[in-house]
């Protein structure tokens, strides 16, 4: 991508978002297909994979600290044509990734049992939940490397190539699940353990493919020479962007873990309904994630080239598209909920409760589509702390607090919990819109630009 491309109509963001959408959709399916195929093997084990995936999602959020920072900084240095800093950013990210991955892996094997006890995971699925987490968690470094290499390729505009890697991964995961979950020929049925092994294998092969693409598509050099002396300022910049954005997502997913604890109060049928409805919700907002990532890359590039007015326009047009698509998908999910949930289960209790949840989901997606776009774009313009503070306050006050009041204390069950989550998304979305509309971020960008120019001249 170059400046003339970035200045074109919003079609550039749309063109970038489509392969990102397909890639994210297929990447999401790597986890969700495990739950779907396990459901056909034994429906109660859906809850095992669902509970384990909450912890795995937290891990991915921590790892995303590096990938988000890498995307923003590489895009910005491409925009300002400061090519010498790009390899330094990437190599510094890799070092940080290895340190964080090691800590996470140790934590998984030492803290899994007390964490799942605290979450009140039912005994009937407790051991299977641990098994899935141990197998997938042992390969945390693979997921982290995949995300970092993906971040670099996206910054350079190679979305279609990244998408092909996701297609490749998904096919391998489906075939692996078919063989390992149910057994095939001389291979025994491994159930949940088989699903976890298949997930790890697909991600490992996907990483190999991603490294190959990286080597032939970019001019980034992976070498220890960029670490001597260690680039403290680059690490500081990565952490300045990554820690607040990571804290925002980490806080949100921790709140979701507490909410899952509430759901576990109601037994395996409600747990299964929650997992299935969350899968459907992923389809509703996945394009919002894709277009927000595309917008973040373009906005970062425009910030690097000092075109703030166009960057502002890109954010608002992206927000409109995100909301329209997200709400349209949610409406279709509600209308055809019995048919769609029927793909997963024939249990009438799950079908009836699921339809109520998807009705509330429509209102939840109004706020979520706003939050996804606004948070990414605020990070791109380096207004990184406010979204984190806002998420921590709103997710725990409304998502957890009111979810508990409505769902547990007032007896509304899963529907009440979903209403609390909808309150969180909508209130937070409104405040982030007001935050961006003030244009206070332009002052920070101009100040940062002046500091960089002074540093170069000095």
Topology:
Blueprint: H1 3-6, H2 11-41, H3 46-79, H4 84-118, H5 123-137, H6 140-155, H7 159-182, H8 192-217, H9 232-264, H10 268-304, H11 308-335, H12 337-341, H13 348-380, H14 385-409, H15 413-437, H16 441-457
Helix pairs in contact: 2-3, 2-7, 2-8, 2-10, 3-4, 3-5, 3-6, 3-9, 3-10, 4-5, 4-6, 4-9, 5-8, 6-8, 7-8, 9-14, 10-11, 10-13, 11-13, 13-15, 14-15
What this model shows, in words?
It is built from 16 helices and no strands. Helix 3 runs parallel beside helix 5. By secondary structure, the protein is mainly alpha-helical.
Number of strands: 0
Number of helices: 16
**SSE succession:** HHHHHHHHHHHHHHHH
Structural class: mainly alpha
What global shape is seen?
Answer: globular
Radius of gyration of CA atoms, rounded to a whole number: 22 Å
Helix content: over 70%
- End-to-end distance: 30 Å
Unreliable stretches, pLDDT < 50, 5 or more residues? Answer: none
Percent of residues in beta strands: under 5%
The average pLDDT is: 80
Major sheet summary line: none
